[in-house]
Amino acid sequence: MRRTLKQFIALVLVLLLVGMVPVMPACAKESSLADWMGELSDDLPLSTISIPGTHDSCSQYITPKYFLQCQNTGIREQLEMGYRYLDIRVAVEETEGGNTLKLIHAFGDCRKEKSLFSEKLYIDDVLKEVYGFLEEHPTETVIFCVKPENEDDDPTEVSALMNGWILQDSKYWFTENRIPELGEVRGKVVYASRFKRHEQGMNFYWLDQGNKEAVDVPYSISMINTGERLWVQDRYKYNNELKWDAFTDDLENCQANEDTFSLNFLTTSGSGTFSHPKQYAGVLNQKFKEYELTEDTCYGVLIFDFADAELAQRVIATNE
């Protein structure tokens, strides 16, 4: 038995030496996806890193599921799989203790568990998951992009409530309106705000891209500040064919660099009357898994529905 084991080990070593056994880069191994940013240099601006992200990140448990669910994992699992951009949709909720923020998607409340009668998911529930992850993985950072989802809410109140939660645990937050270097924000949450009237955090507001018809240039450009730009493709009502064309157009023409943050969504609710994100994600995610990406290339933030570890791993590996 011992002799057989020694022979096997010797064979593996020989194969490694002659290059017959492929060795994956450290940050591309699935077991290290929770700490992949630890392999990157401190002086890299976040906008120059290929980062996997999730769309409607808190919608694992939501009703009606068929129309509104965009993820089948929770926040902590997404972070463990390597996702570092979270799409957070909030609305004001009146409670006995005062107004707070709950997580929603369109008209549906996000919940803590699968049951229709489960408790609603609130912002402090989500932040607890994010803080806990960063405590255990201090080399990482999380871009926390907040959008007021309910048009009836006063955006000023939403912003004030969000700022209150930030102040309670300010040590975890980066709230300046500029693109930071990775070393500045390890172990921190980078606040990005999708508020029409910007007050705090990176200004990630962009005009709605809800058209169903194809446009010549599928992405738009807005300003984070006077010297830094936001480049976004978010055609969320395209059919599969148009969406894939828009997404790959952005991949091939991405302008992500030290002063341009790129967000490229491979997500759509479709061009029909009734949305079913899971159906579209099944087709589009598979296309991405078969698409040939280029190593040592910055693709910006690539954002998925029904995100899994394989999607994240493919994005992360381009940072080699």
Structure, explained:
It is a single chain. The protein is globular. Strands 1, 2, 3, 4, 5, 6, 7, 8, 9, 10, 11 and 12 form a 12-stranded mixed β-sheet that branches. Strand 11 (260-266), helix 8 (277-290) and strand 12 (301-304) form a beta-alpha-beta unit. The two termini are 40 Å apart. It is α/β, with parallel strands linked by helices and 320 residues long. It has helices at residues 2-18, 65-68, 75-80, 123-136, 155-168, 182-185, 240-253, 277-290, 309-317; strands at 51-54, 85-95, 98-105, 108-109, 142-148, 173-174, 189-193, 202-203, 220-223, 229-233, 260-266, 301-304. It has one domain: TIM Barrel, CATH 3.20.20.190. The longest helix has 17 residues, at 2-18. It is 30% helix and 19% strand. It has 9 helices and 12 strands.
What's this, in brief?
The chain is α/β, with parallel strands linked by helices. It is built from nine helices and twelve strands.
Q: List unreliable stretches of 5+ residues.
A: 1-30
Q: How helical, in percent, are the residues?
A: 25-40%
Question: Helix count?
Answer: 9
Q: Please tell me the overall pLDDT.
A: 91
Specify Rg, calculated over alpha carbons: 20 Å
CATH topology: TIM Barrel
Task: Give the termini distance in whole angstroms.
Answer: 40 Å
Instruction: Count the E strands.
Output: 12
**Biggest beta-sheet profile:** 12 strands, mixed
| CATH homologous superfamily caption | Phosphatidylinositol (PI) phosphodiesterase
Total tally of structural domains: 1
Q: From the coordinates shown, what is the CATH architecture?
A: Alpha-Beta Barrel
Structural class: alpha/beta
Task: Give the overall shape, derived from the CA principal axes.
Answer: globular
Strand content: 15-25%
Instruction: Please provide the ordered H/E string of secondary-structure elements.
Output: HEHHEEEHEHEHEEEEHEHEH
- Please report the first level of CATH classification, the CATH class: Alpha Beta
